[in-house]
Design a protein that fits this description.
Two copies of one chain form a homodimer. Chain A has seven helices and ten strands. By secondary structure, chain A is α+β, with helices and mostly antiparallel strands. Chain A has two domains: about 5-175, Nucleoside Triphosphate Pyrophosphohydrolase (Alpha-Beta Complex); about 190-250, Arc Repressor Mutant, subunit A, CATH 1.10.10.10. The interface of A and B includes residues 62 and 257 of A. Chain A binds a DNA duplex through helix 6.
Amino acid sequence: MTKNEAIGALIEEGQNWFLPSLSVDCVIFGFHDGELKVLLLKHRHLNMWGLPGGFVYKDEPADVAAQRVLQERTGLQEIFLQQFHTFGDMERYDKEFHNRDLKKDGITVQSDHWLLQRFVTIGYYALVEFSKVSPSEDTLTEKCLWWDIRKVPSLMLDHKKILDKALQTLRMQLNYQPIGYNLLPEKFTMPELLKLYETILDKKLDRRNFQRKILNYGILRRLKEIKKGVAHKAPYLYSFDLNRYQEALSVGLQGGW
Amino acid sequence: MTKNEAIGALIEEGQNWFLPSLSVDCVIFGFHDGELKVLLLKHRHLNMWGLPGGFVYKDEPADVAAQRVLQERTGLQEIFLQQFHTFGDMERYDKEFHNRDLKKDGITVQSDHWLLQRFVTIGYYALVEFSKVSPSEDTLTEKCLWWDIRKVPSLMLDHKKILDKALQTLRMQLNYQPIGYNLLPEKFTMPELLKLYETILDKKLDRRNFQRKILNYGILRRLKEIKKGVAHKAPYLYSFDLNRYQEALSVGLQGGW
DNA sequence: ACAAAAGTGTTACTTTTACACCCATGA
DNA sequence: TCATGGGTGTAAAAGTAACACTTTTGT
C-alpha cells in the first residue's frame, strides 16, 4: 500500500472502524549507553515527530489497541504496556493540524470529518530492552528512532506533555515498584543497574548504599561472575528472580503505613 | 423538566452536544462515623445504583466535564477531582443495557443510536468533607446517598470495578501524599485523623507511632485544645497548615531514592 | 605499578517498632 | 473512684547516610 492509499483508506473507512474521538499514545522507554531513550516516529503525512499512537477499533479493548498500535508502528511485540494518564484538554485540539497536511497532499476532506475532530487520548508507557528492539517503519511512518530523553525534538500536539507525564510517573513508580526487568538484558551487573536508576532519576546515588538496598529487596540473584573483556575488576552478573520480582510488583516495595 | 423530557432531550440532542463514546465517572469519598463512605446515585431511568457520571461536551476539557457532572448530579461544587484511571474494556459494553430500560419507558431508539454505543469512561475520584455535602437529586436521579464502602449495593456495569480501583489508588496515595484536608472538618483531633487512616487502610495503627510520624511531616498545626462535651480526657484540636500541605502534595512525603 | 572500577565493611544517625506510664473526664 | 480515652516517653531494632579500605584488571 502506498502512502496515499493508506491515508485514503483511513480517511474513507476510519469512521466505520474506529471509536470516534479516542486515540492511544505509547511512550516507550529504553536504556542504552547510560542514556534513557524514548522511541519516536516521524509521521510521513505530518512530517513531524510524535509518539507511536493510533486509534481504537470499535470492538477492541483500549489496552489491546495500545498493544496493536505499538506493534503496527514499531514491530514491537508483547510489550507490557501500562496506562498512566488520559489527556482530554482542549489544548490538544488543533483543527487545522491534520487539515494542513492533507491539503499539502492534495487531499480535501469535509470540515466535519472524523479525523479533524477533537481527540481524547489514553497514554500508555512501557520499559523495553533496548537491544531487542529493531524499530521499523510502516506506510505511514518515515522514521522510527530512539531519542535521548534529554534531546527529544519538537513534538506534535501535546506529545511533549504526554512524554513528561510518563517520565514523572516512571520516577514515582521507582519508589514502590521494582524496575529493570524488560529494561536491562537478561544478565546485568550492579553498576549497570545503578546507572539505570541514576539515569531515570537524573541524579547520583551512592553505589554501596544502592547495592545494599536493592539486594535487600530480595529480587536479584547473583550469578557466577564475569562480564569479561572489561577493563578493571570484573563485576558480578545478576538476574532478576522473576517470582520475587512479580510478588514485589503486586505488593509494593517500601512499606508506608 | 420531567423525567421523560430530560431523557428525550438527551436522546435527541445528545449526539450533537457530547463527544461520542466517552464518559466520565466520579468516585466521591467521604468520612463519617468512623466509616469510609462513597456517594452513589440511583438512576431513575435505570433503576440501579451507580457512580455519578456523565458525558463530555464537544468543546469541554475532560477534567471540567467531571467537575460539571458532579455538580449537576450532586450539587457538589469546586471539588478537587483527580483522574485515576480510564476504563476501556469491552466488558463495559452491554448493548442491551440502556435499551432495556428505554423500552420499559416506551422509548424506542435505533440500534445504532449513540447512547447504545460502547463507551470508554475516565474515572475521577475526590475526598470531601462529609458534613459539607447535602446530596441532592436531579431529574435523572431518584436518590443520592452515602454508602459505607463495605456495604455498597450491586452497581451498574463495571462501576464496582471502578470503585475498587479508586480505593486502591487512594490507599497508594496515602503512602506518598498527605491526605485528610477536604475529608475532615477544619478542626479535628488526632484520634479522628488516626481513625481516618485506619478506615481507609482497613487496619489498626499504633496511635502513638502514628502521631509522631504524622507530626513529623510538619503539615499539622496544633490549636488551643478542647473538643469539649466529650467523655474522658479532652483531645487537642489540629488543623492542616495549608502551605506545608500543598508543598507536601507536590514534593511527596517519603523519600524513596 | 598504577589508575580505575568493583567488592566489602564500619560507624553515626534517623526512623520504626513495641511498648508503659500518667492525666483528665464523665458516669 | 474508676474505667476509658488521650497525652507523652523510652529502649531496642531496623534502616539510611556517609564514609574507607581492599581486590582485580588492562595498560
